[in-house]
Amino acid sequence: METFFANLLEFFFILIGIQLVYTAVRVFMDETNPTRLGSGLFWLIIGVLFAVGEYIPSMISGILVVILGVLTLFKQVNMGDVYNPDPKKADAESDRLNNKIFIPVILLALIALVVATIIPESSASVIGISSVIATIVAVVIIKPKNREILIESDRMVQQVGTTGMLPQLLAALGVIFTISGVGDVIADIIGGIVPEGSQLAGVIAYVMGMVIFSMIMGNAFAAFTVITAGIGVPFVMAAGGDPVIASALAMTAGFCGTLLTPMAGNFNALPVALLQMKDQFGVIKAQAPVAVTMIVIHIGLMYFWAF
Amino acid sequence: MEWIKLIGIVVIVVGFLLKFDTIAIVIIAALATALVSGLSFPEFLSSLGQAFVDNRIVTLFLLTLPLIGLAESHGLKEQAVKIIQKVKSLTAGKFLSVYLFIRELAGLFSIRLGGHPQFVRPLVQPMAEAAAKTTVGELDEKEKEQIKARSAAMENYGNFFGQNTFVAAGGVLLISGSLESLGYHAPAIEIAKASIPIAIIMIIVGIIDNQRFDKKLKNNQSKRNRG
Q1: Are residues B37 and B106 in the same domain?
Q2: For chain A, where are the E strands, in sequence order?
Q3: Long-range contacts: B175-180, Cβ < 8 Å, 24+?
Q4: Which of A186, A224, B7, B199 has minimal CB crowding within 10 Å?
Q5: What is the mean pLDDT of chain A?
Q6: Do B76 and A101 meet the contact criterion of CB atoms below 8 Å apart?
Q7: Closest to B26 (Cβ–Cβ): which among A90, A173, A180?
Q8: In this predicted model, what pLDDT tens digit does every residue of A50-64 receive, in sequence order?
Q9: What domain count does chain B have?
Q10: Of A64-68, B54-58, B64-68, which has the strongest mean pLDDT?
Q11: Share of residues in chain A with pLDDT > 90 (%)
Q12: Do B195 and B226 contact (CB within 8 A), yes or no?
């Protein structure tokens, strides 16, 4: 059973590879893209790493990843005039389909939940399974024109863009941190402040570490990689804390930090401009009492639930 | 000299602060960390390549994109707008709470409502302001400003705390992948389930906060009427 699902997962990676190579081809041919060669190469490389990453030597993969960084560093990855959904058409479609439009998106989450509960071994591949089934249902309900689904795939991939690759890269950074012993160094430093074996002190350090690092970086994902290796594992998991519960709460604790920082421009500064507010910190001020309340709740919940 | 190993963290913090290219910053941080920790350059490349390929699972959400794109082009958001517009004759605070709830529900089903530009500005803030006007009367500048800030805040609360209840959310897959690398078994579905209580708590805290706001609007109004 487990081999079956491992193979299935590999199949889904190949599917994503094809998705990405399709985007690469369209980008290469897109004359409205100012850097179509660089952008196409970016998507091609990721496509190759997904489809056949398992079979190419790690060093080659590493070189390819570095090339990705060079391409984005020199601003070679951009978007052309990708088609955007026509609001008039979307409006007409919502009259035609009404609430039926929600069926496939609800199925997407529901199937994953049901399959994962019934067959625990399916673990990660459930997302692939539910995506494929829900997409088929969507095609039946919506009845798109041929190739429309490919065009939508390309549009969404390009819109998610380089930012979409950040979580995977951060996970890889976490591995490098672990190999290099970064976690141990942070653990030594925090160990001087946090009393050994104190579960509550460990929880506070993990939650506050996430809050503060997310505030500084404006990004809870990046903070998660660093703080989990440095504080979460040695002071919460090693003290007997449930890794799933503790780390899930650590991430949302990081989001509380995001609510409090001007570094998170998309969330706290953008609305100030869009809504023509007078106080540039108005959104953060409105969020502050709630964020602080939520931080306290995170500490309590992690302490009582993870142990 | 163990401290030098923290160079990667310094690179990340400074790089993100100065808004350098994020992908490049992360790779440079990895390289710096590996080199000061005694890995050779080829060893670094191999570790990075291996780690990146091993963590492909984190980007599995790409498979959900064709469906979401298709639904969007065929009126997903327009239909959501229609549902929200049916929510009438509420106080401003209650309307904001309803939006918070809908926003979290959308996160559970990975429905992208479009965030501040496409949803808060054209829909949530005008409706919240209209709700306040019909229930308490004319608003002063300060109150209008507060409604704006709150409309944006609901979007952020709902977006942040709802997203991790979806099994293929980027954050969920990052947690799952990172924990597997650290040697813990952490299926994405379990992470998503463990994110449900805090998502519910967020709604409760939001409702309480919005009730306080309603009360404040009412008090302001009766003060104005008296004075």
Answers
A1: no
A2: none
A3: B175/A224, B175/A247, B175/A248, B175/A251, B176/A124, B176/B57, B176/B58, B177/A168, B177/A171, B177/B55, B177/B57, B177/B58, B178/A171, B178/A174, B178/A224, B178/A225, B178/A228, B178/A247, B179/A228, B179/A243, B179/A244, B179/A247
A4: B7
A5: 91
A6: yes
A7: A173
A8: 999 999 999 999 999
A9: 2
A10: A64-68
A11: 61
A12: no
| Judgement on whether residues B43 and B68 belong to the same structural domain of the protein | no
Q: Give the closest-approach CA distance of A101 to chain B in angstroms.
A: 6
Residues 247-266 of A with CB under 8 A from B: 247-249, 251-252, 255, 258-259, 263, 266
The length of chain B is: 227
d(CA A241, CA A122): 25
Does the beta-carbon distance from A168 to B110 stay under 8 Å? no
Mind listing the pLDDT tens digit for each residue in A276-302? 899 989 999 999 999 999 999 999 999
User: Cβ(B30)–Cβ(A173) under 8 Å?
Assistant: yes
Q: Which has the higher per-residue pLDDT, B28 or A109? A: B28
CB atoms within 10 A of CB A119: 14
Amino acid at B120: V
Query: Which of A154, A275, A277, A281 would best serve as a mutation to test chain B binding (most B beta carbons within 10 A)?
Result: A275
Residue from the list B45, B76, B108 with its beta carbon closest to the beta carbon of A63: B45
DSSP A165: G
Compute the nearest-CA separation of B148 from chain A (Å).
7
ipTM metric: 0.88
- DSSP letter for A122, please: G
| B124 and B68 fall within a common domain | yes
Tell me how far apart the alpha carbons of residues A221 and A214 are, in angstroms, rounded to a whole number: 8
- State which residue of chain A sits closest to B7, comparing Cα positions: A182
Question: How many Å apart are CA A257 and CA A222, to the nearest integer?
Answer: 12
Side-chain-side CA neighbours of A175 within 13 Å: the count stands at: 23
Helix (H) or strand (E) holding B30: helix B22-36
B191 and B221 share one domain: yes
Same domain, B44 and B133: no
What is the tens place of the pLDDT at every residue in A150-174? 999 999 899 888 888 988 998 899 8
- Read off the pLDDT band of B1 (50, 70, 90): low
| B123/B195 same-domain check | yes
Whether chain A has a CB inside 8 Å of the CB on B95: the answer is no
Domain ranges within chain A, ordered by starting residue = 2-73, 87-164, 165-305
